[in-house]
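Quick one: structure for this chain?
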Amino acid sequence: MFDTNKFIIDSIEMFINKKLERVINNDRMAVVTGTKMHRRKIKYMVQMDGGEYLVNDGIGLAPKPNTRVWVHIPNGNLENAYIAARIE
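Got it. Here's what it folds into:
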């Protein structure tokens, strides 16, 4: 006999697992090298993985140059990257 409820639950579980496979969160160590105005908003220049990137200050740390920080890159998208913590 076909169990409709089990089929629906299994289908939902499979759908959720497929979506979660695509979610990639990365935290990278970086060094703040300065600030820059970008679209009327202050962004922080950070040196990370051999390159320099502009990122937001996600939690109001306002780090100064030469400060080591953790940069969070949601879904691997640098456009949404932000400074998540200071490394002491």
